[in-house]
Design goal:
- This protein has 4 helices and 8 strands.
- Helix content is 35%, strand content 32%.
- The strands form 2 sheets. Strands 2-1-4-3 form a 4-stranded mixed sheet. The chain has a 4-stranded mixed sheet with strand order 5-6-8-7, with helices on one face.
- The protein has 167 residues and is α/β, with parallel strands linked by helices.
- The relative contact order is 0.11.
- The longest helix is centred in the middle third of the chain and has 18 residues.
- The protein is rod-shaped.
- The two termini are 38 Å apart.
Length: 167
């Protein structure tokens, strides 16, 4: 069991006790510490089981669990999930269209997302794979300052894929 343990789980005969105000009451028998905690209207909670002797504190268990839950929710809310954004291109893309796609790639990398660049070949374009490789190398060179290649260009059926991640 990780985290604090409650009254019935404390197995050590002696514990170092800290009261509700953070004052160290010293080392005492577990039974005696439990009685003192109950006289104050609180529970005895083991906060550091690996110490010698273990450290126990006078706490209100309900309030303690509520605070721990609140901290966990706050941590979950503040963490950023990294998404994979996809940019689709064709091997004979026009310059302006390429610039628009590159602006999107720079924006996604700036936001901390990964970018999957997909190059779709149609018809006879497949026989000119070197055009696609040249285009993906151009993308790689243009994003060198804010991104790095996570998965180098590879063919998957009629598509060539490359994954960029933020630096």
């Amino acid at each position: 069991m990780n985290g604090p343990r409650f009254n019935e789980f404390i197995v050590s005969p002696k514990v170092r006790v800290i009261d509700q105000d953070g004052e160290n009451l010293g080392v005492m028998y577990t039974r005696e510490a439990m009685e003192q905690a109950q006289s104050v209207g609180l529970d005895l909670v083991e906060v550091s089981p690996n110490a010698d002797p273990p450290v126990a504190k006078f706490l209100d268990v309900g309030k303690f669990k509520y605070e721990a839950q609140k901290k966990a929710n706050q941590a979950r809310k503040s963490q950023k999930t990294q998404e994979i954004k996809e940019i689709k291109m064709r091997p004979n893309i026009d310059d302006h269209d390429y610039d628009v796609k590159m602006r999107s790639i720079h924006k996604f990398l700036g936001e901390g997302d990964k970018v999957k660049v997909t190059l779709r070949f149609r018809g006879r374009e497949l026989s000119h794979g070197q055009l696609g490789m040249a285009l993906l190398q151009r993308v790689q060179a243009d994003t060198a300052d804010d991104g790095k290649v996570e998965a180098y260009p590879r063919m998957e059926g009629r598509q060539m894929l490359m994954v960029l991640s933020p630096k």
